[in-house]
Sequence to fold (557 residues):
Amino acid sequence: MTWFAGEDLDGFSQRSSLKGMGLSDEAFEGRPIIGIANSFSDYVHCNAHFRALVTHVRRGVEQSGGLALEFPVTSLGEPFMAPTTMLFRNLMAMDVEECVRAYPMDAVVLLGGCDKTIPAMIMGALSADRPAIMVPGGPQLNATFDGADVGTCTDCWLAAESVRAGRSTRADQRRLEDAIIRSAGHCSTMGTASTMASLAEAMGFTLAGAAATPAVDARHARLAERAGRVAVDLAKNGHRPSDFFGQASLTNAMTVLQALGGSTNAVVHLAAIAGRAGLDWDLGTLDRIGRETPWLVNLKPSGRFLMEDFFEAGGVPALLSELRDHLDLSAGTVEGVTLGERLPERGSGRADVIAPVSAPLDPAGAIRVVRGSLAPRGAVIKVTAGTPELYDHTGPAVVFDGPEDLERRLEDPATGIVPESVLILRGLGPVGAPGMPERGHVPIPTHLLRQGVTDMVRISDARMSGTAYGTCVLHVTPEAALGGPLALVKDGDLVRLDVAGGRLDLLIEEEELAARAAAMGPSPRRAGRGYQGLYVRHVLQADQGCDFDFLRRDGEI
Ligand code: FES
Fold:
């Protein structure tokens, strides 16, 4: 009404603009306007079906008497963006926030799929705080290859290792390449996209059952249609994210992340989401919840199944039902009911995919936090995807300063890497890279793969793909580029990882560490021009979600 009912020049110009697109007065007069934020792009295969998905949302909006107006937002696709999509997550979040605030809309439907798109949209929607519902794009269909289930992109990493170890050929890898992605939709393992879609559902931003419904399944189209109808309800009742999303929702998300065997990247995104909503966030709480929450979901890379299996097992609603005693069921949802009110009676339909709480895959959850002289503000490790024998390990460091150094020295016998070595890759944190790329899954040298070594302790201030695996300690904070202790490690220094004790330590004397820090001097941020300059100047460390300082709820500068 504010935009289209005025009899002044503004009203004239805004009505005539709609009419210029062929809309009659009847198409918009008195109707709620529902924006549809579409992160479609030809560069993002995970979101390739979004042009069709919009038509289903639009149908739902029209069924309930609204007018749907679609608008494009930044689209972030993992395989094609250089140097890393994470550099642009905050840009997308700003784009979503400002478009939602700037355009006339009574509610917004958010279409996100590939990795960073869902957290970026939630962050933007929280800051704009207009009525909003997320429609996650859904996962790809399951794929098989030579009789085995294969998922993106856990089996890409495995195939690459297999070729390097001499167990398969490049021709085998090319055949896998043809088979592994069968449809539109995001990665089919419990990688970052599946994890963030599941957490979005657990936090109440989506309809129940949305996260695991396959992208190209007719049930996904019907779910999108229903989201369109719900968006019109939201426009009428004014139910905003701040009305249903709170501390209980965030704590539930941490619990679900642990039970999912989910991606370490979700830790960074949840921290950023907490900052946007002005909620308390603490890695210690995540660690405590991890020790108390059973791991239930048997999906790659932690387990063996894929997202279509998770869907058949009942998806997130079934998981939440299994986990009900670990959750705060009074948390709200976009549907205006509590999480408890939309839980199904029955839990898992397939105990091999979603284990019952009475017989979990492990009594503890997926992610642990370690701290110590090497990571004073913490680092994370996904214990469901590593090697338990390495969780209490002391070994000599082999240090790589960035990807070029890694490329140059990893395979060089003179580097002297042995199975007990602790491989450290540094300089790839939020400021150092910049953008904190997914390089923390440092490859195992070929000579060790050929000896049958399958895992080693790896430590980095970078992130790791949610589809990857291994004993990788990630997000070391503070990062090396800002003078964190990771910058002070030298080849041959002993490093101790003690997951049970929650420790990550550099075993050298404090005086020696202080002397090295003094010799290194200060580590200022070196910002260039443009968006990257803005990013380097304002990005927060991993423990605070890598958001910009000025975008947090309390972020006035
Ligand atoms: Fe898009 Fe994995 S590449 S979710």
